[in-house]
Amino acid sequence: MIRPALPADVPEIVSMIRELAEYEKAAHEVRVTEEHLHDALFRDNPAAFAHIAEQDGEVAGFALWFLTFSTWRGVHGIHMEDLYVRPRHRKGGHGLALMRELARICAERGYQRLEWAVLDWNEPAIAFYEKLGAVRLDEWPTYRLTDEPLRRLATAPRPTAA
């Protein structure tokens, strides 16, 4: 069963975010708290959305996503930040069901893109996504500013007008 996340799901989602980060060898980068996630998902104007995959009343996995906008297409899309299915629930169709739900939301709302990133060494995920017909965008590398470089840019003196 796939359903929108509820406030009571926040501890499980945070736990799965940590599990995913461990799998991706990046547990040291996780800073999210239950309060952060609750605020992002359940404030008046949510920054993100989440769906839960359940099996026999147990949380099996989740997808966390947010809206994007394509200047080229002129409409919203979905960026899937995380898709995670707990190891004991893999091969049960939960990942596919979560992807289908996001695709359904795109179709229902007229969104024209469903995008995400995947680590280049994560062969099982790459095979799963390619089996769905997803296309790898090698010509669009992702860049990121965090921590000190982000602070430095934010606090750089503004150029003065001539």
From TrEMBL:
Give the keywords, sorted.
Answer: Acyltransferase, Transferase
User: Which Pfam families does the entry link to?
Assistant: Acetyltransf_1
One term of GO molecular function: N-acetyltransferase activity
**PROSITE patterns given in the database record:** GNAT
Please state every residue range assigned to the domain named N-acetyltransferase.
Answer: 1-155
* CDD domains, per database record: NAT_SF
Q: What is this protein called?
A: GNAT superfamily N-acetyltransferase
Q: What Gene3D superfamilies does the record tag this protein with? A: 3.40.630.30
**Family per similarity comment:** Belongs to the acetyltransferase family.
